[in-house]
Amino acid sequence: KHHHLPPLWYQRANMASSPPDTIKAQFLDAFNTPYNLRSVPLPKLTSPYDLLVRVDAASYCHTDAVLASGQMAPFPPSFPHISCHEFAGTVVSLPSHESCSDTKVPKYPIGTRLGIPGRAYHPCTTCAECLSSPSPSSLSSLDYDPPGYSVYCPHALNLGISAPGGFAQYALADSRQVAPLPDEISAVDGAALMCAGLTIYAALKKCGLREGQRVGIMGCGGGLGHLGVIFAVKMGLRVVGVENSEGGLEVARGVVKKLNKGKEEKGEVRIVDARVEGWEVVKDSLGREDGKTEKGEMGVHAVVTLPESQAAFEYGMGLLRNRGKCVVVSFPEKGFNFSARDVVFRDVQIVGSLVGSNRMLREMLAFAAEHKIRPRVRTFPLGKLNELVEEYHKGGGGKLVVDMHLEE
């Protein structure tokens, strides 16, 4: 579903009006409890890098659920807490001219539409991460920002996790962590791309594949997974998407049908119901399709593991051909067990992928705009965030987003 921008009169009226003294925000007051909607004072700018944005859309991420359940200690650092680390908004206030004399401060005029990821709010600028630069062996220099800023700074705050996030009418952002939204991308779609889009795009990049090679996506119907299918196809990769829920399979198959302009599946994408087909069956089928007879040559060149499931991890590892790569995005509390035989005798690499740099974020947005990539979303007003959470736990797939323009 494509969400159009608010009408031009709405944008102009809201840019012209001053922010209110008090705003509404959804608060997490304790672990494993519903959110509570309350009025609080408007956030204040505290740094020359700060921007005050009117939040237009705020997307719900799996990390929000993990945080709310108490599995991300020591985060949040205190209660009450405003969650959401993937949102989109419009600049409404800037620091004073005197505090913005630094030429390194990015300039975004009032009225600029921005995508806002959680990382990295107020990085230290001096640690090894902030001063790092790409190594000659790195897959892409896009995973690094210029020295002085890093999304991986251990001292930076993370909006929605260690600092207030986007489940509020207005929020603060660091001008170094944001990216302008292309005109082709709405706030609702842009919010969903700020974590889910960036994370899966960076993970696919980390696979290091060439056009025409195969990639497996475990959990292909979820928020990240369905976007991964779309991104991978647009990158020229052949996709094996794996799911084990009816909702996820419905989303994934719907995505494929749209990619194929209403036709059923064809060679570029294969959606597998893991409840019906084991990895051995799928791998043999891929081998026959590719004309391979050696077991080590059958399967996918890389796999991205998204579910927090040992079974999903093992399924993905099974799909890999020899010298393949498993990119792990999920982080279950107890971790994953892996086979030493896979990494020693089959030379399979296991690497992690968290998010991506600000430069990677901009590339992802440009790619999404160019290829008309839109996430599969369902929207809710801010006051119905708890209903959104209930829907999330039903496992219907796709992304769930708070659209601030919806009536309560």
UniProtKB/TrEMBL annotation:
Record's keyword terms, sorted: Metal-binding, NAD, Oxidoreductase, Zinc
Protein's UniProt keywords contain DNA-binding: no
SUPFAM superfamilies from the UniProt entry: GroES-like (SSF50129), NAD(P)-binding Rossmann-fold domains (SSF51735)
Cofactor: Zn(2+)
Domain Enoyl reductase (ER): 32-402
Top-level taxonomic group: Eukaryota
Pfam families, per the entry: ADH_N (PF08240), ADH_zinc_N (PF00107)
GO CC aspect terms: cytoplasm
InterPro entries: ADH-like_C, ADH-like_N, ER, GroES-like_sf, NAD(P)-bd_dom_sf
GO molecular function: alcohol dehydrogenase (NAD+) activity; metal ion binding
UniProt xrefs under PANTHER family: ALCOHOL DEHYDROGENASE 1-RELATED, VACUOLAR PROTEIN SORTING-ASSOCIATED PROTEIN 11
Similarity field: Belongs to the zinc-containing alcohol dehydrogenase family.
Protein name as catalogued: Chaperonin 10-like protein
